[in-house]
Amino acid sequence: MRAVVLVGGFGTRLRPLTLNTPKQMLPVVDRTMLEHVVGGLGRQGVTEVVLSLGYREDVFRDAYPAGECAGVALTYAVEPEPLDTAGAVSFAAAAAGINETFVVVNGDVFTDLDLRAVWDRHREVSAEATIALTPVDDPSRYGVVPTDADGKVLGFVEKPPRDQAPTNWINAGTYVLEPSVLDRIAPDRKVSIERETFPELAANGSLWAVQSDAYWVDAGTPATYVQVQLDLIDHRWGSPTEAVAANATVADNARIDHSVVMAGVRVDADALIRDSILMPGAHVARGAVIDGSVVGPGAVVAGGAKVSGLSIIGDGQMVESGAVLDGVKLPE
User: pTM of the entire structure?
Assistant: First the structure.
């Protein structure tokens, strides 16, 4: 299998962490988001990943100069301008010379989905496109996908009001596509796969779906970026992973409660870290409290400060001694 991984976005919801770093290059516990996603694809039989790039493509190339990530070969496809989701898929597939059945995944989705089951069902029903579905409590943020009893898609409703959604099964951001789908995508403008391509395929009866209640999180928001990491150390998905990096320095009387402490972090005496993420090189000084928040790479939280309410402290930022931050992004 070959797969196109969409990683071209600006990651605006995760700012300020993404001011200089593409979202998929942010660390998730012990490796980048991209390495988790690509490694998962490799374990299910994907042998080549085509990265659909836009924002800061140089960061990806510098990180993987040998053209390999998590044991999977990488090909780079850099959009000259943002082409939206379908346009990005079409551009990447053309750049890589894809002319056979292929996989597409969103680069910020963490899942234990059985990709082979989706692939096999796609072949079994001779679909032109097959999408994985996952159930959610509130479908209003997503593309909602009603199907018949066999899994044929009856429609594709993008982000309906919560009380008007025909189902709670949503587009999970993993697709198996035939190359004929690319012929439906206009080459000279932005095209949304969710708003244009999939509804067209559903209307002609060639779009199918596979429902799965496997672990699934879209890690594109501060809340879900934290959640996916706490879920990993809680062994809800992936392989068992240590919450505190071996080369982090944590004072004996500091308290680390259900948190991720990455490489090179320093936590001083009497500090409390709860339900939070400390990114590489961060420093939490004596008596500071980090509660349900993210402290970015190289950032410093000075003595006695309190950071809570899903605050996000950006790269190299300083939280002054005694400061109280609740739901703050620094810099704004």
Answer: 0.91
